[in-house]
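Renewal narrative, Specific Aim 1. Our central claim is that a sequence can be written position by position from structural information alone. The example that follows is taken directly from our test logs and has not been curated for this report. It begins with the structure tokens describing the chain, in the order in which they were read.
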């Protein structure tokens, strides 16, 4: 996995990793039309101070049946 430009990020409300002066778990949320169409949200709050510049898909969850290496 590598960081990708934010312009290529999915806007289907799926969770992704965002780079916004640090790594954040976030998703695109389509706001009502009166709210300018949509914005990035992290941990329940809208990003207002800066905008993410890059994104990355979440890694695959570990298999709880596999022992640690």
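The sequence written for that structure reads:
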């Amino acid at each position: 996995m590598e960081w990708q430009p934010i312009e290529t990020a999915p806007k289907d409300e799926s969770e992704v990793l965002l780079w916004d002066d640090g790594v954040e778990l976030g998703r695109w949320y389509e706001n009502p039309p009166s709210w300018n169409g949509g914005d990035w949200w992290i941990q329940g709050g809208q990003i207002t101070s800066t905008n993410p510049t890059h994104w990355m898909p979440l890694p695959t969850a570990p298999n709880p049946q596999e022992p640690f290496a």
